[in-house]
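QA checklist item 7 of 12: single-chain prediction sanity check.
[x] sequence parsed
[x] length recorded as 85
[x] structure emitted
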Amino acid sequence: MGGRGGRRQADARFLHEGLGSIRQWRDFPAKVAAATGCRALVYDRYGYGQSEVLAEPRRTVRFMHDEALHALLNCWHRWASAIRC
């Protein structure tokens, strides 16, 4: 998607805090995308909101850190590749 002046706009990523879900964002990501011309990725962490149910009986204390570093980056790359023009 072209941005202002024909330049590509940055993509906006919305990640809820540790105990919430994307439902808390409501229409905020759509409003930001419309106002800025950015694409928006709204992501529910694994085990939260509308994501897959946790398969593990327990998670380590590093879960949030590892999820952000690995799963979120993986998700972002797949999403960006799927919509690339």
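[x] summary fact logged: The chain has two helices and two strands.
[ ] second reviewer sign-off
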